[in-house]
């Protein structure tokens, strides 16, 4: 097992520069991460930088609040696909969920799903803003919508992923929807615990190097598998000017 295959390398800060995005993509390419996750403005740049690689390009729509119209989410999703996105993720309308307007929450998700066709859809549910019952309810809605992934957090709310919540989601979806744990994951130990708890992927923030912060969990089966795959070239540094990677 190579943990890099489970990583979404993420940079969604509004002040991220082009240079930051280039470094994000260069690092993801060198470390063979599963995906980069960036704002839709930079999708076309990432597509050029990651051409001829296996790194996927994910972008969020209706981000980070989820409170815009469904039509605006649909438009943004379609444009992201034109620009080269491989996966779309959307933030749910939290206000509608808390109003118990479940039909409208489902309609919001369904229309985005219909607009992007076979492209995988991740639904960000913002767990820090929800009760346990609300988490179970949105999981049921996502099952009805037949989405591919549920993501714990946007990174812009009070808190990020928790192991207990990933377990609740995993129990609710019964393997029919994959789970992405995001926010607060800063070392291999934590990432592996999320994978053991039912997450299919983990998101880490731009600039975090899991390998440099890890502490071995000797009783972890996944950790032992991971250690067997680690090679010296799994940890890389960007020593060349980022301008060299634009061409």
Explain what the structure shows:
With 247 residues, this protein is of the alpha/beta class. The protein has a single domain, classed as TIM Barrel (Alpha-Beta Barrel). Helices cover 41% and strands 15% of the residues. The protein contains ten helices and eight strands. It has helices at residues 18-31, 43-49, 70-83, 94-98, 102-116, 132-145, 163-173, 188-196, 210-213, 221-229; strands at 7-11, 35-38, 56-61, 87-91, 121-124, 149-151, 178-182, 201-205. β2, α2 (43-49) and β3 form a beta-alpha-beta unit. α3 (70-83) runs parallel beside α5 (102-116), α5 packs across α6 and α6 crosses α7 (163-173). The two termini are 33 Å apart. 41% of the residues are buried. Mean pLDDT is 89; it is low at 214-219 and 230-242.
Helix proportion? 40-55%
Envelope shape? globular
Oligomer: single chain
Tally of distinct domains: 1
> How would you write the strand order of the largest sheet?
1-2-3-4-5-6-7-8
Main pleated-sheet profile: 8 strands, parallel, barrel
Continuous helix count: 10
If you average the pLDDT, what whole number results? 89
Terminal-residue CA separation: 33 Å
Spans where pLDDT lies below 50 across 5 or more residues: 214-219, 230-242
Helices and strands, in order, run as EHEHEHEHHEHEHEHEHH
CATH class: Alpha Beta
In short:
Helices cover 41% and strands 15% of the residues. The chain is α/β, with parallel strands linked by helices and 247 residues long.
Question: What are the key terms here?
Answer:
TIM Barrel; alpha/beta; 10 helices; globular; 247 residues; 8-stranded parallel barrel; 41% helix; single chain
């Amino acid at each position: 097992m190579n943990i890099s295959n489970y990583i979404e390398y993420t940079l969604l800060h509004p002040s991220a520069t082009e240079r930051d995005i280039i470094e994000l993509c260069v690092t993801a390419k060198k470390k063979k991460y599963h995906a980069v996750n960036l704002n839709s403005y930079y999708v076309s740049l990432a597509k050029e930088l990651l051409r001829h690689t296996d790194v996927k390009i994910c972008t969020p729509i209706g981000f980070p609040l989820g409170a815009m119209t469904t039509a605006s989410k649909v438009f943004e999703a379609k444009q992201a696909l034109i620009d080269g996105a491989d996966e779309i993720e959307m933030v749910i309308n939290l206000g509608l969920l808390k109003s118990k307007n479940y039909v409208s929450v489902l309609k919001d998700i369904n229309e985005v799903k219909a607009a992007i066709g076979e492209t995988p859809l991740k639904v960000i549910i913002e767990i820090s803003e929800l009760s346990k019952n609300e988490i179970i309810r949105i999981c049921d809605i996502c099952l009805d919508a037949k989405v591919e992934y549920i993501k714990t957090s946007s990174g812009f709310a009070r808190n990020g992923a928790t192991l207990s919540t990933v377990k609740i989601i995993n129990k609710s979806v019964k393997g029919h929807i994959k789970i992405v744990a995001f926010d607060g994951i800063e070392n291999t130990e934590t990432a592996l615990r999320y994978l053991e708890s039912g997450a299919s992927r983990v998101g880490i923030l731009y600039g975090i190097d899991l390998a440099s912060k890890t502490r071995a969990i000797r009783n972890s089966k996944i950790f032992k598998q991971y250690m067997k795959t680690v090679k010296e070239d799994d940890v890389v540094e960007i020593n060349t000017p980022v301008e060299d990677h634009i061409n």
